[in-house]
Amino acid sequence: MATVIETRKLSKFYGKHRGVVDLDLAVEKGETFGFLGPNGDGKTTTIRCLLGMLKATEGESYVLGEKVTLDGSALRRRIGYVPGEVFMYEKETGRWMLDYMSGFRGGKGAREAELIERLEFDPSRRIKELSKGNKQKLALIIGLMHDPELLIMDEPTSGLDPLNQEVVFDIIEERVQAGATLFLSSHILSEVERVCARVGIIREGRLVADENMRDLFAKRQRELSVTFSDVVDPSVFGGVKGVEDIIAVDSRTLTATVTGDAVDELIKHLATHRVSDVTIQHASLEDVFMEFYRDEPIETAAAALGGDAS
User: Fold this and answer.
1) What's the pTM value of the predicted model, to 2 decimals?
2) Disulfide engineering: 9 pairs with which of 59, 78, 136, 287, CB 3.0-4.6 Å?
3) Residue (of 133, 105, 107) closest to 121 by Cα position
4) How many domains does the chain have?
């Protein structure tokens, strides 16, 4: 499988200020990759380096098999970029903006009319008259209308109502099914959880986790609640490795946290008792994400999921 995005010890500093440090990253063709981290931790710097908008201080990047340089207009025609902050010519219309961007790509985008219809966007209005949501629609149409091989999206549904968010998700999923690759940076963790199969977490400019979403969740805590048919003592879970923080809610109901791969052993243990109800609440991506932003050293956060802070 071809590698669509690759960085090798990519570092970017702004004078003495850190952007990203020694970033090693690879995204394969057809993957859906989520890139997470708060403002200021290096997400936007990484994207701008990948697009050739910034020159790296050290290291290098490859996109769609080509080394990224500042003079990379031909490469950028193959990429659909939706920025986190949209800046456009306010006095012009949406139609003017679409035609202007098409001129850089050598012709009208093949999917322009379809996207205008699906997003219910009126291109005749001047940009200064548009709401934040409609400006975001225009940015999405510009980023997707030329049917790009690689989608690099930074907060793509910002300002959109739930119905339009669903339309955007559908469009993204259709493009991925058709063979496109997705690199999604977002603060909306539920959106990353929905569309991404793999996630990278960046903290203070360093990648502290890069994992398959399924494996990531398998390592996290789950909240367990069990109601037994008979009165039980909290010691009923004694000796079951990975079951912790056991609390007796009443004489028949216990709650606990389950960590790691303890679920299989737990289910076998429960089968030896009469159980009337059981629920296991999986950790959300937000729960996982917040573990990396406690007041722990980067090395500790990385070790929690087997990442590498170097």
Assistant:
1) 0.77
2) 59
3) 133
4) 2
